[in-house]
C-alpha cells in the first residue's frame, strides 16, 4: 500500500478538525439569546448597588436625527422605545403591604456626559443613588426615589419613566413610550428601585434603540460601509490572483494553492460581514446564521494565514520538501489557535450587543494573545534559520524574495505593536465609551493590516512562468539540517604519502568545484 506523505495529509486532518469544532460549537451559541439594538429582558434580576437595586438595560451610541425637542419619533428618526416592559414581584413581598401602599420602579435614561447628575450625597458624605432621609429633609428629592438633577447640556434630560405597584399587586407595567434622541451621544438605560420590599423583582419586555440610518449601534454603523469596501478590495485582489493562477496553472506550487484558499476565505468573510451588518441594520436583530459563519470563515482565514506564514518561514517547499516531525506540532498549534479565536469571536459577536465591554471577553483575549505571541516568535526564529540556509547555499533569487518577505513581516509586527499600545491607551482612557464614534477604527485597522500583508505575499509568490524556480528541488545534496552542521567543519589539508590518496583528494576537489559551479550557474539562471 502506498504511503501518504504526512505533509499532504495534514491539511485534510486540520480541515476535518475545524469542521468538527464548528459543528460542536454551533448549537451552543445558537441556543443563546441573541439581541442587538432590540434589548430583551427575560426574567432578569436586579443587583444591589449602594442603597439601590439596579439592572443595566443597555448602553449604545446614538446619533441625533432632528433638532426639535418636541418632535415625535418617526421611521427615520433616532429613538429609544419601551415595549411591553412589566415587573413581577414574588408573592411574599406583598405580605406586609397595605392596599394604600405604592411602590415604584424607575427607568432612567441619560447621556454619559450627564452621569454626574445621577445620585447625590448629604453634607458631602457617601454618594447614594436613592434619596435618603437626610436629603429629603434638605428638600433635594423625595425619599424612596432615584436622585437626579436636570442636565445643563440637554434640556428635559435625564428621562425618567415610572411603573407603580399599588397595594398587593404582583405586576406593574411601564407605559409604552418612545424617547426621541435630539443630541448625539452615548446613552445609558438603568432600571432602579429603592424599596427593599421589592426584593426578588424580575423584569420582562424589551427596548428598541434606533439610529437615523437604521438599527445598527452607533459604534458599529460605519463598519457596514467599511466591509463593503473591503469586499471590493478582495474582489480586485481575487481577480488579479485568479487570472495569474489560470494563466500559469501548470507552474502552480502547493504554497500558491494555500494563498488561493486564503483569498477565497477572505472574500467570503468580507461578503458575509457586509450582509450581516446590512441585515442587522434593517431588522435590529443579528442574523445568527450569517454572524456565525462570518466569524467562522474569518477565524479559519486567520488560522490558515498564520500557518502559511509559519511553514513558509520554515522553508517548506523552498528549502525542504516536508516539515518532517514538525507537521503534527504545527497542526496541533493551529487547531488550538482556531479554537481559542473561535470562542472569543463568538462571545464577542454572537450575543447581546452593548457598548460596555464584558468580563468574559477580557478573560478570553489572554489565551489568543499568548498564542499570537508564540506564533510570532516561532515565525521569526524559523525565518532566521531559513535565511541562513539560503545564504549558505547562495540561492540568491530565493534569498531575495525571503528578505522582502521578512521586511514585510517586520513592518507588520512594528505596526501591530504600535496599534496595540494605542488600543490599550484608547480603552483605558475611555472608561465610559465617550469616544464611541471612533471605536470602529480599532477592528478596521486589523482587517486592513491583514489584507495589506496578504497583498504583499500575493505579489511575492504570484503564479508566473518562473514559479518553479522558487520551489524545492532535490539536486542530490544532503539534507539541509545535516548540511548546516557539516558546514561548520572546514576541511583542512590531509597529508598523505599515498599517491592514490592524493589522486582521490584531487578528484574530490574537482567534484566539489564542479558542484559549486553548478550551483552558481543555477543562481545565474534564476
Concise description?
The chain has helices spanning 6-30, 133-137, 221-247, 254-283, 288-313, 327-349, 359-393, 396-428, 441-460, 480-487, 499-525; strands at 38-45, 47-49, 52-62, 79-88, 102-111, 159-166, 171-174, 177-180, 185-193, 202-210. With 526 residues, it is of the alpha+beta class. The longest helix has 35 residues, at 359-393.
Which features characterize this protein?
single chain; 526 residues; alpha+beta; Jelly Rolls; Rhopdopsin 7-helix transmembrane proteins; 2 domains; five-stranded antiparallel β-sheet; 11 helices; 10 strands; 49% helix; elongated; disordered N terminus; GOST_TM; transmembrane; GOST seven transmembrane domain-containing protein; GPR107/GPR108-like; signal
Strand content: 5-15%
Radius of gyration, Cα only, in angstroms? 32 Å
Helix content: 40-55%
CATH fold type of the largest domain: Rhopdopsin 7-helix transmembrane proteins
Alpha-beta classification: alpha+beta
Report the mean per-residue pLDDT as an integer. 78
Q: Give, in order, the helices and strands.
A: HEEEEEHEEEEEHHHHHHHHH
Report on this model:
- This is GOST seven transmembrane domain-containing protein.
- The model is unreliable at about 1-35, about 70-75 and about 475-525 (pLDDT under 50).
- This protein has 2 domains: about 35-210, Jelly Rolls, CATH 2.60.120; about 215-480, Up-down Bundle (Rhopdopsin 7-helix transmembrane proteins), CATH 1.20.1070.
- About 50% of the residues lie in helices and about 15% in strands.
- It is elongated, with a radius of gyration of 32 Å.
- α1 runs antiparallel to α5 (about 290-315), α1 (about 5-30) packs parallel to α6 and α8 packs antiparallel against α9 (about 440-460).
- It is an alpha+beta fold.
- The strands form 2 sheets. Strands 1, 4, 7, 8 and 10 form a 5-stranded antiparallel beta sheet that branches. Strands 2-3-9-5-6 form a 5-stranded antiparallel beta sheet, with no helix packed on it.
